[in-house]
Every structure is written in C-alpha cells, then in structure tokens.
C-alpha cells in the first residue's frame, strides 16, 4: 500500500479513486465482454430456452419440463443418438490414446530422421476436417476403395464401411485415428519429462524394456494420459463434422451422433427450445463423466512430488 | 528533437476518448427513412340481374333474379418513393438460372423505375437459416422462393403474407398454372407460381433395349412388364453387375413414396394427423422395391448405390450403368448443357411410369416451388408487383430458355409450345418424347407438406433405410415407420 493510501486508511476516510486499481480490468475488458456476450449470457439463456417452446420466429413460450419429458420419454432418436455417441466414444478414445502413445514411444526413440517423422505424423491433425472426411470416404468405398482393395489381396471381403449399419461407426473411428498427431505431441512432451534416472535405476534392477514401460513410463506419464483421456472423451461427445459431411447420420441413424441430432433440431428445424434441452442434457452427461474420471483418477494417476 | 514520454494517464485518457467517439459515431448514424404502406381494403357489392327462362306447364316463363355479390377489394396504394426489394432463393445447381433472374430483374426495373430488385443467392441449407434468422431479426427478405418442406412451418409462425387480397384485386388466373394443394391451406392464397417438378417417368436406354432384344416400354406397361424387362436387361457376372435393369432411388420424394401411391396407399392421412404407412397398399409398394433389390436383384440396394456414387458416378443412367431409371425431367439439364455422353452407349427416351395393373390410377409425386412475400416486409406492394411479373409469361419463358433448364413450366401454355416452350426439341436428342414428360405433369400430387414435415420425413427415412439395407422386411419397416412418424406428429 502506498503512503497516500495508508494515510487515508489510517484517517478512516474512503480511499480516493485511482485508475491504477482498475486499469487491469480495463485491459482485459474486451475479452471479458466477449466472454459475457458470447459465453455466459448464451449459456444461461439456453437454460431458460430449454424450458420453452421457441422456434426463432415469435417469443419463447414457457412450457416447463415438457422438452425434457419429450426427450426422455417420447423421442426414441434421442436414445439412438446417445447410444451411437457412447459407442463411438468407447471405441475411439481408448484406441486413439493407445495409438498415440505407441507412436510417441517410437518418435521419442533415437531413430533416423526423427524430426521428419514427427512432422509427418503431426501434419494430418492440422488438415481440414471436411477434406479429410471426403478423402477417407473414398478410401473406404466398399467396391473400389483402397482399404477394401488391399483387404481383397489377402482374401478378405471388406465390409460396407460407411454404407453398413454395423461398420459405419467403426469406419468413423478409423477416420479419427488420422488426427492423433495432436495427442502424440502431448505424449512426446510427457515422455521427455520422465526422469532418466528412473530408467537407469530400473535397468540396474534388471527390468526389461517391457518392465520399464509398465513400471516407469506409464506411471510417470499417467497425469498426461489422464489429461488426454478427459479431453478425448469430451471431444468424442462433440463428434459432428465427419458424420454431417459423409454420412448425414445414416445409414438408418447408425451415425446419428448427439451433436448432429442437436444441430438438426436447432439449425434445420429451428426447434430452439428442444435443442437447448438436448444441449443441457449433454452438458450434464459430459460433466458427470468428467467428474467420475476425476474421482477414479486417484487410483491410478501418479503425481510426482 | 524532444521526445515526449507517453504516460499512463495520457494513454488511458486517449483510449477513453477514442472509444467514446466510436460509440457516438455509431449511435449518431442518420436513420433510414421508413416507407410506410397503407393497404386499404373495402367491401364492395356488385349487383347483377340474371334472366333464366323456365318452362312451366308448357308455358315459357322468364324469371329475373337479382344477384348481389359482396367481395373484398384492395385498392392499390398511391405511388411511393423508390424502394429496394430483396429476393432470396437457393441455387438449384445451375448458375444459369442466376443469370436469367438478373436479366428478368433488369427488365422489370426498366419498366418499374421506382423498384430496385436485389437478388440474393444461397446454398439450400444456408438459405433456410438465413430466411428464419433474418425474419427473427426483423430484416427478412421481401420475396422468398419457397419449398413446401418449410412453407407450413413458416406460415404457422406467421412469417408469410396472405396474398388473397392481391390476387383478387389483380384478377390473377391460377387456372393457367400447375399448382399444388399444399400451398393453398384453408382455401387462401399464400404463394405465386414460379417453378415445379414432378411426374414420375421411366427414362430408358434405347440402345440397351436393342442389344437385349427387348421391346421398348410403352405408356400401357404394367409392373409385371417392367419387372420382366428389368430382369432381361440386368447384366451380371458373378458378384459384379455391369448393367442394372432398373435404378430405384431410395429417398421418398423421388422413390418409395411413389410406389406406395401407385398401389393406392399414401404415407399420411388427409388432415396430416396420422401416418398411414402400415396400410397393406403401402406395404405392397415397398415390397415391390425390395423384390427388385434383393429377390430378382435388378436394382442396386442402398449400400451398392452409395458405393457407386462414392466412386464418382453422379448419374448412373448417363454413365450407362443402368438400362432404366426412375427420373423426373431433372435429367434433362445434362442433355441440354452437355449433350449425350460421347463415350457411353446411351440413347435416352422416356415413358410414363407404369401402373401396377392396367387401368390403375396414375398418381405421381410432384412438387412446386412458388414465390412468397415475407409478412413483415415494408415493401409489400413492390414485392407483389415483382412476383406477379415472375409469374407472367415473359419471365416464365425466359426461365424456360435458360441453358440447361430441365423442368416443365408451371405455366401450362408454355408446356404446349414447341418454339419457346418445353416442347422445343433438345438439340442432339430430337427423338426425346417431351410430350410424355408434359403428360406426366397431369398426374402430380404434392408431398403432403405440413408443419412438422421435416422432422417427420426424417424419422420415416431413417426407418426405411433398414429396408434398403436388406435388414428388415416391408411390413416391419412400414409399421415401424408409422410408429416413428406418429411420434413426431403427436409431439408438441
């Protein structure tokens, strides 16, 4: 506290207004305004709208819990979209993390042209989502796509992929592996932070490569793995672009992801009230899963120090 | 040179002044003058005397009856200041239409110097978002090209202006146009005709028929004739099919709805409160498609169709992959702009879609896309003048003359005209039976649009997919689709 302020305080008078006490707020005000206008207000506005019938034209009409009743008890496609999203999440997240981890292990080793390979594996994750989706749709063409052609060379008749109800979601999981580069980079950073002396100590104790991986690398990487797992689950629940562009929810709603279903209600049918209810249910589900992961993390995540 | 240091107070003072000046500038903008229209509607009585001669007991008697008719007449408002009207539409795939719109607008503006027409184009899904968001923001487009899929919904939200007073005032004659009941709910007029397509046809490859030694289809064909021909025309070697006998589209509008209707069924009841796909006639129509796809295998199923289209085949008929296809005249755009594909052995011809049995009623899917006026438009009279102009013969003829315009006109006289109308021969395919395409328009029925049509149709298509994938039979999918459709209809 400055001399002036201290003197004023001691005298029991209100401190004078000083610019320097508020200039910090002034400098971050543009960002704060954006957060308020495009984040906080819409967040709570959608909560209100979820209890209304609102179709963009005309004022919202309060209908209480009707949207939620319809959602849980009268809309079978809500359950279909939730099931599809959960199925995708269960397949995509673990597989994506494992692939990213294995790639990171290889890219962390002392291999020839390591920098080149690191770049090559990271590049796909920065390519445009729509272009990537179309590319994969061509590759997965059941009749003359590259994947089924290669499978036919080894005597396997490839499935219908995105045109098959059973294989549409696995096809999208396959497409999601294209974007593991971002996770690989995070794991690389984590691997390089593992203290070398732990590997040396384990080697001295006679641990094999596999043993060092299981008892040194993975435990030391557990915070990083936990972070990517949480983000991966959240990201999987937001699956939209590929389904919208390539399959449009088909065939037979096999790829009707939750966000795609929400998008249809909000921006194709303009059922804003119902879409808001869908959004809030998704928020609660994702929040619940994240809190569950946080609770369970104590059992397997090791924070050094 | 002295360098003055910028201190904190000076910087903050300057930033506050700049911010305040910006806000003042924004608020101080001169408001745009608002043009207020007043439409005066009067009730006018017209009295006429009608003489009727009757013979009573052998003696002719002349009876004079005085008939008094009351009708509402809307007077045209006084001349107004120059206005700009915005006309929104979605690009249907051919930018030539945009050029025609610009030409027609230019001519209209020359004849109406007080009106400026601004054409605004969008893609399909963007268009509907713009329409509704702009309406909600009070900045809707004055004129909107309309689809039945959204019409009932927008009308229910009071977004569309009723045109009955204008039509009556200017004596617009709808009898000259192909119209669709969907756009005349409650007997009132909400739209002006502009474009339309429909009328199920079979497009067949004459060369394929010649090679297989099969007689060409006729308008008297039945479904049995059609199935027999498709069987003969399918060329298969093991699992690979080099030519399908028939290509059936798996969507409702151009596909399965028609087959249900051909059997005498329909997908919804007349007041749009109950899905009726569990009717045995509907099931019979769907079963026919499934027999083509999975029993006789003369038509590709959904997986096969997807695979073919994903491989880059945009039009299986003109690629020579199928001997017959169920096409509306939409396929004409390729013939008009690109001509016959040179490297494919395709010689197209059309015939009316066959009926299940001889003498069965023809009932084809059809769809019109009229123009409408936004109910909140501040330039209603100018907008009316514009869409009245677009419905006129000259504008309809200009559209018909567009390179690659594939559709019959909703203005009937143009469909009978072989100089500037639809019957003008298409260069390179002069043998094409254009009269049959016009004939098909006589059997148009709309798509039963209603307020929840988008949601409802989407739910039906999702269920029907199981059939096209070969996972469920006709009866099961139809019953499930009925239940799914009813769930949407009953939701609030």
Describe the structure.
The complex is a heterodimer of chains A (305) and B (492). Chain A is an all-alpha fold and 305 residues long. In chain A, 69% of the residues lie in helices and 1% in strands. Chain A has one domain (68-300): MetI-like fold (Orthogonal Bundle), CATH 1.10.3720.10. Chain B is of the alpha/beta class. Chain B has three domains: 41-75, no CATH class; 83-195 and 367-415, D-Maltodextrin-Binding Protein, domain 2, CATH 3.40.190.10; 201-366 and 452-490, D-Maltodextrin-Binding Protein, domain 2 (3-Layer(aba) Sandwich). In chain B, strand 1 (40-56) and strand 2 form a beta hairpin. Chain B starts with 7 loop residues before the first helix and ends with a helix. The longest helix of chain B is centred in the N-terminal third of the chain and has 20 residues, at 8-27. In chain B, helix 8 crosses helix 9 (280-295) and helix 16 packs antiparallel against helix 17 (474-490). Chain A binds chain B through residues 19-20, 23, 26, 53, 55-58, 63, 66, 70, 74-77, 137-138, 141-145, 160, 162-165, 249-253, 256, 264, 267-271, and chain B through 8-9, 12, 125, 128-129, 132-133, 135-136, 153-154, 157-159, 302-304, 306-308, 310-311, 454-455, 458-459, 462-463, 465-466, 468-469, 471, 484, 487, 490-492.
